[in-house]
Task: inverse folding
């Protein structure tokens, strides 16, 4: 027996499926097609089956089903929580890029009003540099306030990202911190994708330039990518940093699988994983 | 194929992606479309009105819209949710474009929806392109044509594009895909090669 979108066909006997587009789609989703045995459709069979009288009508009908399925799939994709998180992370990175550029330009502009202005020996973080710009004409003040406003939004968004990450990828977030975990997720495009990656891919994710230069030209391989942003990696002594990154990323690979398949925090796993990462610093 | 002063065009409802229009014909730009590049290099299979096409890797539906101008029906398979939105828009204005949201490497998920086709066009940036073609081979009629676009940099960065082509050709022959001709798409696209294949 062959199953097609409109019904089952066995030899010369046809069993058209009677139902609305929704019911047809439900049926198609549940079809288990054995591709080795499958015989593709000749549309004339559909005509003999009474599905459609003409080819135009046949195509219109099959198209209605396909469009309905595609819309359904797209809708369920955008309802996924990891997808929302990914876009929040992208926005966060976009804001960072924008504020950095705008701040740089603002500093140059400010120099034309206060030529003695310098960043040296100032004890404030670089991102608060706009606080020091006290003079300036109206348009400059407007720009400055806008930069500060965007910086505030960034702070709010960052908390939101970390909170959401803790919620939907609790184990990965417990190992890496919400923000870095969310960045990893955003880079590979989804929780399913992250959970199917080996630890070694996670270790070098975000270091693609170095990785491809290593593969092509034999330069030294990268030790860490996004994972470097975790304090366990960047605070580790230089000699063991690669090792810490390797062990951490293999634990992250397990954590991502726990997040995908169980979807809740496993405190015991997290404790043991953190212990073994801490041990990596001291073992020689 | 329709040419106006050495410019490849197709005949249909214009304004799909802001393409240029000459005398009511839509310009099909070889720098944007790999299939158009293949025609510009004189190596494309002629598209005719009776053709049924299985298009794997339909993306935003820009090349699909041109193929649909020439042929009977295009079954456009695409997996990524974002380009699908555009593809749905294109299919809403073109009766003979049938959008299918599915993974081209899992034909069992969309096999019941499509029919035997005269042409398979595959433009997917994946390392296992030949394997994907092999899995979709059952949909191709005997004597049908398949065009595989290999993005060699996507198959293996360690190998040179020429080596990738050689390996892919051998893989094709091994699984019964007869390669008639291979065409590098330069100067229009870098490191892309088109394999013209047939089913015997």
Result:
């Amino acid at each position: 027996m062959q199953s097609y979108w409109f019904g089952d066909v066995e030899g010369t006997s046809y069993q058209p499926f009677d139902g609305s587009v929704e019911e047809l789609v439900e049926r198609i989703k549940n079809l288990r097609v054995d591709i080795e045995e499958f015989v593709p459709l000749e549309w004339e069979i559909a005509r003999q089956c009474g599905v459609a009288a003409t080819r135009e009508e046949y195509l219109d009908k099959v198209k209605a089903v396909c469009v309905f399925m595609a819309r359904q799939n797209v809708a369920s994709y955008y309802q996924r929580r990891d997808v929302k998180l990914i876009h929040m992370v992208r926005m966060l990175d976009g804001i960072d890029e924008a504020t950095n550029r705008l701040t740089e330009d603002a500093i140059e502009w400010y120099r034309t009003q206060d030529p003695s202005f310098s960043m040296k020996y100032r004890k404030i973080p670089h991102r608060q540099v706009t606080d020091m710009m006290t003079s300036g004409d109206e348009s400059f003040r407007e720009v400055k306030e806008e930069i500060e406003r965007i910086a505030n939004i960034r702070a709010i968004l960052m908390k939101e990202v970390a909170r959401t990450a803790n919620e939907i990828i609790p184990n990965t977030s417990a190992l890496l911190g919400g923000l870095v975990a969310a960045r990893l997720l955003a880079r590979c495009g989804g929780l399913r994708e992250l959970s199917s990656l080996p630890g070694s891919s996670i270790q070098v994710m975000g270091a693609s330039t170095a990785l491809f230069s290593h593969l092509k030209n034999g330069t030294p391989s990268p030790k860490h990518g996004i994972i470097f942003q975790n304090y366990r990696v960047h605070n580790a002594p230089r000699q063991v940093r690669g090792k810490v990154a390797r062990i951490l990323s293999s634990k992250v690979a397990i954590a991502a699988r726990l997040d995908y398949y169980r979807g809740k925090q496993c405190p015991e796993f997290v404790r043991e994983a953190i212990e073994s990462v801490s041990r990596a610093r001291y073992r020689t | 194929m329709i040419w106006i002063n050495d410019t490849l065009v197709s005949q249909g409802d214009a304004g799909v992606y802001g393409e240029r229009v000459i005398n009511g014909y839509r310009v099909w730009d070889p720098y944007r479309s790999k299939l158009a590049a293949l025609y510009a290099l004189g190596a494309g299979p002629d598209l005719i009105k009776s053709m049924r096409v299985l298009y794997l890797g339909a993306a935003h539906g820009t090349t699909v819209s041109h193929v649909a101008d020439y042929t009977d029906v295009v079954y456009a398979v695409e997996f990524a949710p974002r380009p699908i939105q555009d593809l749905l828009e294109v299919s809403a204005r073109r009766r003979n474009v049938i959008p299918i949201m599915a993974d081209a490497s899992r034909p069992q998920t969309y096999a019941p929806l499509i029919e035997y086709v005269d042409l398979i066009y595959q433009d997917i940036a994946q390392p296992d392109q030949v394997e994907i073609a092999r899995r979709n081979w059952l949909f191709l009629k005997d004597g049908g044509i398949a065009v595989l676009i290999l993005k060699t940099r996507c198959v293996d960065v360690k190998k040179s594009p020429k080596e990738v082509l050689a390996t892919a050709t051998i893989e094709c022959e091994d699984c019964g895909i007869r390669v008639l001709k291979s065409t590098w798409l330069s100067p229009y696209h870098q490191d892309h090669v088109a394999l013209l294949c047939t089913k015997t």
